[in-house]
Records
---
Amino acid sequence: MNQPTQGAARRPSIREDAINLPNLLTMLRIALIPVVLWLLADGTPRANFWAAMAYIGTALTDLIDGYLARRWGQISVLGKFLDPLADKLLVMATLVFLAYLGRLPFLGVVAVIIMVGRELAITALRTIAMSEGLVMEAMRAGKDKTALQMVAILMLIVHQRYVINFGFYQTEFDFAGAGLVLLYLSLFFALKSGGEYFKLFVDAVDAKDDRLARAASEG
């Protein structure tokens, strides 16, 4: 009977993955989403401020959990599933709630609807690709889209106009207006990366079909 090799690496169980710090931070990010929405529902400048702080704290866990997972060698299958899910839930839930609260104009609502549809379509493509054993790497345009959405949402949460005084010059900064500009810009990258993902999926399926056809002809 073969004995296990002493010192051989053992794959952590799902339970062990669930309690490592990077994944706990990811789950905390998901748990904080209702807090952000609850503060947003108040609508007062004070509540907007605390909603923005909660949102920043939630977004920061994304940077921290990724860094810790790489630093401590705790990149896991569960983490690869939870991390993008948490990002999508944070972004989409906040955008949809902002639209529900009437903080977005008509074109902003349309942009949110398109973004939600895009996320659902890409998630479906990724699920199909995974079931077929295909790998779909993250696109640069997709990362740009997420970064723009994060900043846009923060500005839309603050929502107010604030006077900025440089001493020799004073001006107003419209957080809601700037947030909308970034939201529309993120829509461009959302559509661009969506097209790239679709092309990548089609190319991967074609390549797999070619491999299967060659294997069948050689066999």
---
Amino acid sequence: MPCRRTASESVLVVVAIALFLTYDTFDVSFSGRPPYRVPSTSAYSKRERIFIGSIHWNNEAILRSHWNKAVVDLVTFLGPENVFVAVLESGSWDDSKGALRELDAQLAQLDVPRSIVLESTTHADEMSRTPNGTGWVWTSRGRQELRRVPYLANLRNRVMAEMAAESEAKGFRFDKVLWLNDVVFTTEDVLTLLSTYDGEYAAACSLDFSKPPAYYDTFALRDLAGSKTMSPVWPYFFPGASRRALVANEAVPVRSCWNGMVAMDTMPFYATPALKFRGIDDGLAELHLEGSECCIVHADNPLSKVLGVYINPNVRVGYNQRAYDTINAAPLWQSTTERIRAIWKLRLAFVLARLQSTTESMTVNRRLKQWGNPEPGRHCLINEMQVLVDNGWKHL
């Protein structure tokens, strides 16, 4: 009898696995929408005004190899009368300034409205200032150090100030702000991103990759429930609405994203008070917590709950040409077999991943309670401290 029971149980296990595989195969192969792209050869039906913003530091290589040309191609397609390009570079020790001067000259030939700001202030210069005001934190090294996130938030706000100034000078408002990281992208990528949900969104983001198959920007991406991703590889998310949409190749609802390229409705940036990028309070940061300005901005954005924040899985950008070519080799990028294998890996890793997520969440909640003040971007917080150093930034 025991042997027969064991054999029966084995059969049930095999049947269960077979059913799971059958379901996964159907789900991955047949339930999703076909990949959708807006070709750059088509007539772009929505003639919106697009404000294009970017910050740069030591990006000469990709500026010269891809980025400058991609921006010129984009503004040529959209029309110089429909865009404004705002770039802020500061403290690079490579020739990013030279590369951006070349871009400035190319945009001038096209009569593109723009602001290309090149500054000599380095990280070392910023760090040498006497600590005053916000953005400084006492660290385990026994001194006040300049926090990375408020520093970046200030740079982004300076770029956004160009939009307000241009609107005031010209008497019109931009419809979308398009933030571009130092990534390889095409006009088709941008058009597809702008067309997410027919353009009705608070924000729409690409997916970004440096070393595929792992996606890059884990600091800013949170699923619709506010959780960090379960895995850096597809299907990324814990089971829920975000993963279901991803598997179906639909626009993925999330709480926050950035991921290389993001388009946002500009209305909150024109409001009074205007939406701004920010870091968490210095007092909270001293408790060894941090949150990305690119995540917190969605928590502060009143449109996020009204229009939604989305990842468009059909838009994939890379921090180098090899990464871009890999993730765009096929419309769905990964084969059905690879996707089924990835789903099973995440099933097997679910318990450990959930335990890690819960443990970090408990740490964050404990420190928030210790701080004693509300933080709308609670889901953005992680158990880290990040400060500026001469050659970049450092975890403490």
---
Amino acid sequence: MIRVVFHVSSFDLSLAAIRKSRLWGGGVGCGLNSPSINPFALRRTEFENLIRVCGSRNVKDLHYFQQLFWMGHSAAVWDCRAATEITKDWNGIDQIVLRNPRGALARVSLHGAQVTSWRNEHGEELLFTSSKAIFKAPKAIRGGIPICFPQFGTCGSLELHGFARNRMWFIDDNPPPLPANDSIGKSFVDLLLKSSEEDMKCWPHSFEFRLRVSLTTDGDLNLISRVRNINGKPFSFSFAYHTYLLVSDISEIRIEGLETLDYLDNLLQKERFTEQGDAITFESEVNPLESLHLDRQKFSTSLIFPWQVDRVYLSSPNIIAVLDHERKRTFVMRKEGLPDVAVWNPWDKKAKSMVDMGDEEYKQMLCVDGAIFEKPVILKPGEEWTGRLQLSVVASSFCSERLGLDRDGL
């Protein structure tokens, strides 16, 4: 690849001028089906001013700058045209592959708009997918990050977790603009789901669901959901990013950020309890309450789970840490517009009863979901809801106070 170095000395520069110059190239774009810009390098401050000028003329044009810069002084520019590509999985379903310049990767299937893979710069997989997962619509894929909409869980008349994860989505070539920082320095794809005749039979509301999945230069995975009511009357929905994290062993995992919160226990008819400890941990032992014939409900505030856990923590902070002591790394979840957090692991008995889950695979997975559960979103006609999730990995398994995490989230 030829690297062209170009420094902007005047910031009174329009996008039209760039298009007329030799810096503008044709062909396949760095988004999808959009024009591309030939690789060139600017100083960071110069680039920010350039974007500000272009953005003031047409925010949508920022889409064309999405892959240009690997941030840093005199940063090397990577080939934006190779950062996003469409391939097919083994069932012939289209999937979008996102890459960053350091080698991180994410795969997004049009089946459910589901992120099926997220790998770091060393090629290590970070999301769990069952070896028995069914990659064939309309079945849900066991693993990755299913989109649960318009229902999360069983609270409602729809199928478990709603229908969005089982539908075929479409690439959205012309989405309504998002803020510039949701595009610059990221490879991304925009997907779209609209209400169909089939959906209207079970959920009679017209909607547009737009999802942007992006991969940053640091390897963070971002998901932005936008649901718009294009119906003539209000509707309500619950939602979740049902995130399957790949872990070394469930007994080595610690969740921080949910302590002292109220939660609903889905295994106890959604009864409400309050956590009492400073973190949540798991054990791989036989449930002692079963052998002692004790009332499990009296012990439900325990923070150690030697059995299936299925809980929704309410009014949670916008940042949660999942520490994996064996691998010495921490998943950091930052969220916005998602007040609740669901925690789920099927444990051995439940796993053995699931046709799309290996008997022992529960040990290598944990679902920690940014969600809306207790108080569904109510959208009036024309209104739009936005929910954001950012997943990152820190090479440390210390407690979150030593990680210096900002509890305000995004």
